[in-house]
Design goal:
Elements (H helix, E strand, L loop, with lengths): L2 H29 L11 H32 L4 H26 L12 H23 L11
Helix pairs in contact: 1-2, 1-3, 3-4
Amino acid sequence: MSGGARRSALAGVLMGVGLAAFLDEVVFHQLLHWHHFYDGAGPDAGLVSDGFFHAAGWIAVVAGLFTYADLQRRGETVRRPLVGGVLAGWGGFQVYDGLVQHKLLGLHQIRYGVDLAAYDVAWNTAGGIGLVVGLLLLTRPARDRVTGTA
């Protein structure tokens, strides 16, 4: 993989992780009130943990966008690794969140007071699909550039 392709993949992964964190925070934490990043110490600590989680997600997005902007400026952006990175970053974050944070560490669950099986399957399957498709795109040769050159 060329330097532009590697940096495109990195930009994509950062944006994908940040996007996943942003969607999780906004939808499940703020709009639905299903959980906080850390539910083990009460709602006040949960809100503070959500703030740190939200900030970390946005740092990832901004870092990815700066990397992307630099690639664009240099004419080195490669589309397939960029898209593959976004999908792999999003999917990897989703699977990590579902398996490590939800199950292994018990920081929070997707939702409380309901049977979690369907939620866990949907959460981890969606993330797994994104991760696999992203990795497939990342392992294929990259020939097309975002800049429009073939």
